[in-house]
Amino acid sequence: MQLDDIRAFLHMANSGSLSRTARDRGQPKATLSQRLRRLEDELGTPLVSRSGTGIALTKAGRAFVPHAEEVERACARAHDAVAGLRPSDKAELRIGVTEQLATNLVTPLALQFVRDHPGMLLDVQVMPASRLFLKEVNLDCMVCGGLPGIEDGADLVARGISQYRRRLYAAQDYLSRKRMPTGPDDLKDHELVCNASGIDKARWELCFEDKVFTLEPSGPIRTNDDWVAKVCVMQGQGISLFPDFFAQEHVKSGDLVEVLPGWATAPTSITVVHHAHRFANPYIRTFIDFFADRFDGFFCFPYRSGDVMNKQACR
C-alpha cells in the first residue's frame, strides 16, 4: 500500500466528495480515482460507493478508516522522531490561523520567529475556523479564538495564550450627528453594522457586571469580516462590535470612540492547538513555546512593530 493512496482515501472519506477532495488537494479527479482503485485492488474490496451527490463509505471502507488514520499518525510520529536530527534550515512548519487573528497577532510573531530561527520556513495558512481542524488540511499547529469543538478536539491539545473581548465602537463624525447612547436600549435608535457569518442572524450579547443584554442588530450593511465593519464605522456608517485590540489604536488617535464603555462580550481565549501525537516534533514545541513567551499583546496597527496593545489591557 502506498501512503499517498491512504491519505487520498482519508481525504475523500472526510469530505464525502471526490470533486472537493480534488480541489482541496490540487489534483485531478482522475488521479484520485486511480489512487482509490489501486487501494481497493490491494484490499480486494470496494471502499466507497459513488452517487450523484458524492461518495459514501462501504462497510469495508468504514472498517478501514481507523486503521488508515493510525497509519497516518504512525508516519507523523516517525517523521517527528527524527525531525530534531535534521538541520534547522531544513525544517518547515505549516501553521493555520483564522482570518481574525492572522494580521493582528500571528503575522508579526511569525516574522519575529523566522528572524530568530534563520533557515526555517513557516507556511502560514489563513482560513475560516470551520476548516482549521479538518484532518485533510494537514496543519502542524493552529492559532484560533476559543477552543475546538468536542468532535474536532478529540485528538488535540490546546495552550491558552491570552484573551480578548468585543466592544462597541463608532466614529466621532457619526456621534456628532447622532446622540451617544447612554444605555444598551438606545442602540435600537442607531445605525448598526452587523457582524455575522453565512446566513445566520447576527446576535450581540453584551455583559456589564451582572447584567446581560442581547440584540439582533439591523442596518443597511451586514458582513462576516471585521475589517469591513471597521471601514464602515471609520467612515461614519454607524456603530459596530469588534475586538478591542482591533480598535485600540484608533481610539488612542481619536478616530473611534468606545460606545457604552464597560459593556462587552464575554472574553474569548486565544489558543495555540496541536495534535497530541505531534508534540514529539521539536520544531512544533519550539514554535508554541516561542509564541507563548513572546506574546505581549495584539498588534493594533501591524505595519509597525511598536504598535502593540499590552496584554494586561486585554483582560
UniProtKB/TrEMBL annotation:
Gene Ontology MF annotations: DNA-binding transcription factor activity; sequence-specific DNA binding
SUPFAM superfamilies cross-referenced by the UniProt entry: Periplasmic binding protein-like II, Winged helix' DNA-binding domain
Entry-linked CDD domains: PBP2_CrgA_like
Entry-linked Gene3D superfamilies: 3.40.190.290, Winged helix-like DNA-binding domain superfamily/Winged helix DNA-binding domain
InterPro entries, per the entry: LysR-type_TF_proteobact-type, LysR_HTH_N, LysR_subst-bd, WH-like_DNA-bd_sf, WH_DNA-bd_sf
Protein name: HTH lysR-type domain-containing protein
GO biological process terms, semicolon-separated: DNA-templated transcription
Organism: Devosia riboflavina
Family that this chain belongs to: Belongs to the LysR transcriptional regulatory family.
HTH lysR-type domain sequence ranges: 1-58
Protein's UniProt keywords contain rRNA-binding: no
Taxonomic lineage: Bacteria, Pseudomonadati, Pseudomonadota, Alphaproteobacteria, Hyphomicrobiales
Residues of the signal peptide: none
PROSITE patterns noted in UniProt: HTH_LYSR
Keywords from the named record: DNA-binding, Transcription, Transcription regulation
